[in-house]
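Researcher: Please translate sequence to structure tokens.
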Amino acid sequence: MVSDKTVRVEVVYTQPAAQHLVSVELAAGADVRLAIERSGLLRKFREIDMMHTHFGIFGRLVTLDTPVQDGERVEIYRALLKDPKAARRELASRGRTMGKPPRTRRG
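Model: Translation complete:
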């Protein structure tokens, strides 16, 4: 049970093959940085660089000093492997789209 002086948040880090979600309980007034540190995800995933990574709360970019509220989801974003515009152009040049798989002919 979360008291008035604590908040419970989830910290999530997603890799191409898996999502890692950790629930942490913090003192009220804690910030994004503390939530991430307490989650243990920094120790588990050495590629997370706090100085060059972006963070969000429910899809909205935030800074490390943003206070967290009870029930929020802190997200650690990975760098994109490929620029989305370049990926769409590449697919379009082959007559495909990012949405549906290509249709096959039955016969």
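Researcher: Any highlights?
Model: The helical segments are 32-39, 41-44, 84-93.
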